[in-house]
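Thread: quick sanity check before group meeting

JM: Hey all, I'm pulling together slides for Thursday and realized we never actually wrote out the predicted structure for the chain we discussed last week. Dropping the sequence here so it's in one place. If anyone has concerns about the input, flag it before I start.
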Amino acid sequence: MAEKKQSVKLKIKILLVDRSDALRSAVKNFFSANNTVEVTDDFADVNDARRKLGSGLTINAAIIEVSPVKPENAAFIRELAEKHSVPCIAIHEASYTVPEDLPVSDIVKKPRTRSEFASFGTLLSTKLILTAKVNNSGKCEDGAVFPVLNVKSHKGKVEPIQPTRDDISGLDKRTRDGYVVALGASTGGTDALECIIKTFPKTMPPVLVVQHMPPVFTKLYSERLNRCCAVHVKEAQDGDRLSQGLCLIAAGGAHMELKRDGRGYYVKCGAGEKVSGHCPSVDVLFTSVAETAGRKSIGALMTGMGADGAKGLLKMHRSGAYTIGQDKDSCVVYGMPMEAYKLGACSEQQPLENIGKTLCRRLTDGWN
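JM (edit): ok, ran it. Output follows.
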């Protein structure tokens, strides 16, 4: 038996500068559970960071506070960009407007309350991971317009097990019968979803996806997937009708729900309060799929921090849907699928490389 290849996780090493000891501690604790991002050093004062960088500190990116009372921080960001080609994400108070000419890869508002921190941390993770999708030449993969980190893409990228002709032989019938596929992911999910969606043939029943990601990025991500997948991938818009071979990705900042009328399935999309700490929320999508499609649905919950999607997957499972959780070894962060597994929401757990094939096979063979 061939030895199973061990996937190599990309490690993004970052420098963190913020005057708040509490915020720096919270960010470090958040990333300590993330196999992709590592806070190499953190400082309250930018001059200490500058001295450490001069002594040979190696970083891929920086997260730096910008504030009217800390003008030297903006100068340090310019220095990092111009002299060291290190990209920065600026974090700031909601009351402060970051200068438009500051050379930062992205901007994130600081959380105002403890309850806002989870979404703040996830947003930082997503922006860092997305910007790390570069090849050895330093150019964005597939022509996607993402801010570029000075990081080489890892060579341990998971290659999916492709479904056979037998695996996909029943997909046409399942589409005619009104079956729907629902997928959810967070940290590490951009690669995980690509691995899965690349296995789907044009005959796949309609696919709905929630990936925790900010506005604008969801459209860019959808366009990139559309260039490399057989199914048609697009950012969801309110009222989009579902059809065979169509994959809709929820827009950043908008929940997506499955609805049905006399013409068939469609999606309802719009801004709303955060659910399970997120908008879009996997729980919102999965709950609507359970209520609208029930046993004629199949779902998978992939890598991500927190518990979003776990309760929704349980509702799908109880409605008669077939449900899959990504296994621990193949997750960047075994959080969301772990919570689903603990609730008894998973019909089975699968390694990432086998999830796409399993979805196709289960749809063909049935489970009811």
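AS: nice. The chain has a mean pLDDT of 84. The longest strand covers residues 37-43.
JM: adding both to the slides.
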